[in-house]
Design a protein that fits this description.
37% of the residues lie in helices and 29% in strands. The chain is an alpha/beta fold and 238 residues long. The strands form 2 sheets. Strands 1, 2, 3, 4, 5, 8, 9 and 10 form an 8-stranded mixed sheet that branches. Strands 6-7 form a two-stranded parallel ribbon. Strand 1, helix 2 and strand 2 form a beta-alpha-beta unit.
């Protein structure tokens, strides 16, 4: 028992010493070490390839370790300290996390390119009560956002299939299994002759934010650096 206690405490001490050394080096102008980053699948390719390239050029001494999970898991990993910074949907608990919103889109409906949906650019959410849906698994907050919007408008969506991969969901829509939803920014993923994107009324907002743990005495230098590069790359144009 004493050995297990010493081992656990020793790991914490070593991690703290490494973090302290990195922060001291940062005061001298050098940022180094490892940044543990949590990103949902698809978000990395859509938003963070340029950020990672810019970050690598500015901070060559920092190794970036990326894990991919849904927003719920990433939120828990940031809180537990298993990753230093992560991406999730708003809202997040501001008493537990600090954060920065970097993307603001709407969810759109993905439907087959068939006669039933022709001539329509938008659809009322309440008109979808009898439709079959293929949806993201419960690991993803996007699915929760859509289900909550349906509930507010008087129905529970009938879910006939689930996946954690948007491309698989789109393939199921093409196959006529059901309809689905995704952020409008994912439009390049679809084949217009097979499926269409329709706006939803009322709109369902989809905001992405970087979050890191609130309450740490000093924000690690690598986290501050990543936030700064993300702000420069993703927000400067807007």
């Amino acid at each position: 028992e004493a050995g297990r206690l010493t081992f656990t405490k020793g790991l914490n001490i070593l991690e703290g010493m490494s973090s302290l050394r990195a922060d001291v080096e940062a005061l001298k102008g050098d940022v180094w070490g490892t940044l543990r980053l949590g990103i949902p699948p698809r978000v990395g390719a859509a938003f963070f390839a340029r950020v990672l390239g810019d970050f690598r050029r500015r901070y060559p001494l920092v190794d970036v370790s990326v894990v991919e999970f849904g927003g719920k898991k990433i939120r828990d990993m940031v809180l537990s300290g298993h990753v230093d910074i992560g991406v999730t949907l708003t809202p997040y608990d501001a008493s537990l996390f600090e954060g920065m919103v970097f993307a603001n889109e709407e969810l759109a409906l993905v439907v087959p390119a068939e006669a039933k949906w022709q001539g329509r650019d938008a659809v009322d959410l309440r008109d979808l009560a009898d439709e079959a849906f293929v949806t993201l698994t419960e690991d993803y907050l996007t699915g929760d956002r859509f289900r909550e919007a349906c509930r507010v408008h008087g129905f529970v969506p009938r879910e006939v299939g689930h996946s954690g991969q948007l491309d698989f969901l789109i393939a199921m829509v093409e196959a006529g299994i059901g309809i689905t939803f995704m952020p409008k920014g994912c439009k390049p993923m679809i084949r217009p002759h097979r499926v269409r994107l329709l706006s939803l009324s009322p709109t369902i907002n989809w905001q992405l934010a970087l979050i890191w743990r609130r309450g740490d005495c000093v924000v690690p230098a690598a986290v501050s650096a990543w936030v700064g590069v993300t702000r420069d790359v993703l927000l400067s144009a807007s």
